[in-house]
């Protein structure tokens, strides 16, 4: 039986209700196995945190449950400060569960400092192998059976990587699901490692996004040229970052991860470059990159807060095969377009990169340096278990509605369509009205549209 209002069971502690504007919230902590393949009593335990959210006055109403699966990998769930967006819409009819996926937020968070407790790269890899979608789904099932009355099924909403987790859920635990909603998160589900196909398609889309950016802000071509030349000519090929890392030309290109793929990203990137240089207030002083820009750069890439993203990103594409630094290899195939220094020497725009992790990050980013050897072992690891069951998906009985964004820089449209063709009964909403960040930007509209697709309010074709 689920614990409530401060009462507890051995593996579940629930707090009391508290308030945010127009919302009531309650915290839950679950003591779950690190390794579900072991007997429950013999596996080491970790804590998984979930926040229950309802509209004010609905605390005791028998509402159906909706579990939100966050994007990532390696990012915690949003922290509601008030009713709004998709959460407000969901709370009209659901009891929302915001689960910090294992290793993030309040779920035995894996930060640079906490991971430093693990003394060898091999031991860290053996620990991190339990933090992919398969075990996130195990955690969700663990929680569902303790929260939902009668251990009944619940609806899940998966955004981006959360959609990957939702397809894993459909593959291995469909009896726990009433409905599945996915936004920008249909994964490639082929055997082996699908990362090469993802990055080949990704680099093609990246070129398109860069072209659109520079068409919007053509004045930035010369600004970025100047920055790249300055970095390349600096001692050591870059300038020191506040954290102790180094900003190099290829590191500068990482700004495309946040700047090219979401709404307002173009504008934010442009305004960032507006303040790249310190003003020269003393005649003869040398020009230098501003502290404002260097600090903002580190906030944009944010590997200090979410190192799991860098460590596990390519593994989300692996089933029984290694990634072998897929993004790095595929970039090499496109280096004639993405070589920043050569572009800056000529007249070509410097192209930014996207959702890609490269081995040199573990040299240039201070927070990642201690995990360089573990990252290499993860890239070489072959024995990743299956994340999807194509036969089960082709026989799917759970109603699924998915928003597929036509110009999604992170989850490729063509690959998403291929996956959808293998999930029985899925209904797609294909739109270019929103980018990958549609759920954040227009959450109530996006969620309302998906729910309408499942309840008959939208046409069946």
UniProtKB/TrEMBL annotation:
InterPro entries: AB_hydrolase_1 (IPR000073), AB_hydrolase_fold (IPR029058), Peptidase_S33 (IPR002410), Serine_prot/Carboxylest_S33 (IPR051601). Keywords: Hydrolase. It comes from the Eukaryota. GO terms for biological process: proteolysis. Pfam families: Abhydrolase_1 (PF00561). Gene3D superfamilies: alpha/beta hydrolase (3.40.50.1820). GO terms for molecular function: peptidase activity. Residues 66-221 form the AB hydrolase-1 domain. Belongs to the peptidase S33 family. This is Uncharacterized protein LOC104219895. The lineage of its organism: Eukaryota, Viridiplantae, Streptophyta, Embryophyta, Tracheophyta. The gene is LOC104219895.
């Amino acid at each position: 039986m689920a614990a409530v209002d401060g009462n507890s069971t051995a593996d579940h502690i629930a707090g009391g209700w508290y308030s945010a504007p127009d919302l009531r919230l309650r915290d839950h902590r679950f003591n779950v196995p690190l390794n579900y393949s072991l007997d429950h009593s013999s596996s080491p335990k970790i804590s998984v945190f979930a926040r229950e959210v309802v509209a004010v006055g609905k605390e005791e109403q028998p509402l159906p449950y909706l579990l939100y699966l966050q994007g990532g990998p390696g990012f915690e769930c949003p922290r509601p400060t008030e009713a709004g967006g998709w959460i407000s819409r969901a709370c009209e009819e659901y009891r929302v569960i915001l689960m910090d996926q294992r290793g993030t937020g309040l779920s035995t968070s894996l930060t640079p400092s906490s991971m430093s407790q693990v003394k060898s790269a091999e031991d860290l890899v053996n620990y991190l192998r339990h933090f992919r979608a398969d075990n996130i789904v195990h955690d969700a099932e663990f929680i569902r059976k303790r929260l939902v009355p009668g251990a009944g099924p619940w609806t899940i909403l998966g955004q981006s990587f959360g959609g990957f987790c939702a397809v894993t859920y459909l593959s291995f635990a469909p009896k726990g699901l009433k409905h599945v909603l996915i936004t920008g998160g249909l994964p490639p589900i082929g055997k082996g490692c699908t990362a090469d196909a993802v990055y080949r398609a990704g680099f093609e889309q990246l070129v398109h996004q860069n072209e659109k950016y520079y068409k919007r802000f053509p004045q930035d071509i010369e600004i970025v040229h100047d920055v790249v030349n300055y970095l390349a000519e600096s001692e050591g090929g870059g300038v020191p970052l506040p954290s102790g890392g180094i900003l190099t030309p290829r590191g500068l290109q990482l700004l495309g991860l946040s700047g090219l793929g979401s709404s307002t990203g173009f504008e934010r990137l442009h305004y960032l470059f507006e303040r790249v240089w310190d003003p020269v207030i003393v005649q003869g002083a040398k020009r230098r990159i501003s502290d404002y820009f260097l600090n903002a750069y580190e906030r944009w890439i944010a590997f200090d807060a979410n190192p799991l993203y860098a460590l596990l990103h390519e593994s989300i594409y692996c089933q029984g095969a290694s990634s072998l630094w897929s993004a790095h290899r595929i970039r090499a195939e496109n280096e004639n377009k993405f070589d920043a220094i050569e572009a800056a020497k000529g007249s070509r725009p410097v192209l930014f990169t996207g959702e890609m992790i490269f081995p040199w990050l573990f040299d240039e980013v201070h927070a990642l340096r201690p995990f360089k050897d573990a990252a290499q072992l993860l890239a070489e690891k072959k024995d990743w278990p299956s994340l999807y069951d194509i036969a089960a998906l082709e026989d799917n009985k759970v109603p699924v509605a998915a928003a597929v964004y036509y110009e999604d820089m992170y989850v490729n449209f063509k690959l998403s369509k291929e996956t959808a063709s293998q999930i029985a009964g899925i209904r797609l909403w294909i739109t270019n009205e929103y980018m990958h960040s549609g759920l954040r930007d227009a959450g109530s509209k996006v969620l309302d549209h998906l729910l309408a697709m499942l309840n008959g309010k939208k046409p069946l074709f």
